Amino acid sequence: MSVRKNAAAFAALLTALAGRASVALADPVVSMPEAGKLGMQHAYSPVAVQLENFHNLLLYIIIGIVAFVSLLLLTVMVRFNKRANPVPSKTSHHTLLEVAWTVVPVLILVIVAVPSFRVLYYGDRTPNPEMTVKITGHQWYWSYEYPDNNDISFDSNIVSDGDLKPGQPRLLTVDNEMVVPVGTPVRLLLTGADVIHSWYVPSLGVQLHAVPGRINETWLQASTEGTFYGQCTLICGTNHGFMPIVVHAVSKEDYKAWAEKTKTAGIDAGRAFLASLEAAKGATKTALATDNGAAR
């Protein structure tokens, strides 16, 4: 009997853990700057993953170079100071050493250059985009147009401190978020209405200038549902720090519903639909957590 009871308890524990895992996996991510955090924000797009891998490669190379140079300096200070080496060497050259310190840096540069160009060209191409979003930078807000969805367009302004709701981050919250379907290549066309701006969302690996009189092109593909925060990264005037970027990635079904509501009833209806999605997911999470607690 005790064996059966232990087996039943173990099965219940596994069920509870699986339930918790499913809740965690179902939760949309929220990617934003964190105080005191070291390193890059977590990557949530194919381009961001490649950028993160390239960053890590460079980090290892730089650590190796710094360690080698530091060790070399320390060795020179200890072995070739005046006390340890009263008679200085008169060596004027060393062919093998000179070849080595020429060839090794060249090899390091090649190791850096190959993945660098690979990432550069991968981020610059637009692989079979399924939709297009035109982004225009203004002093000091962004506007978004969806030409593939009956020219849906709206402005995205920062929410002032007095209007923030509990849980909304200061200086990063906007009234209308850019909405994209998850797992979908999205072509981005950027331009500026007045001065040069820069549209940057680090966790999606996207940064591109918005230049007046010119259209620049890039792309993004969110790998998971969630909210991704960014900022204008080019000083564009007095309120440069008050034009945040928020990209909201939802399922393809939810995106179609959002586009339909926004197209027929306006951006306020689209905003209300997104709020209802968040509320529903929050309620589902609470219910699942309660069920897991009861199972224990």
UniProtKB/TrEMBL annotation:
It is a multi-pass membrane protein. Its cofactor is heme; Cu cation. Its EC number is 7.1.1.9. One of its GO terms (molecular function) is oxidoreductase activity. It catalyses: 4 Fe(II)-[cytochrome c] + O2 + 8 H(+)(in) = 4 Fe(III)-[cytochrome c] + 2 H2O + 4 H(+)(out). The chain crosses the membrane at residues 57-78, 99-121. The keyword Nucleotidyltransferase does not apply. It is an enzyme of class 7 (translocase). One of its GO terms (cellular component) is plasma membrane. PROSITE patterns: COX2 (PS00078), COX2_CUA (PS50857), COX2_TM (PS50999). Pfam families: COX2, COX2_TM. Residues 32-127 form the Cytochrome oxidase subunit II transmembrane region profile domain. Subunits I and II form the functional core of the enzyme complex. Electrons originating in cytochrome c are transferred via heme a and Cu(A) to the binuclear center formed by heme a3 and Cu(B). Belongs to the cytochrome c oxidase subunit 2 family. This is Cytochrome c oxidase subunit 2.
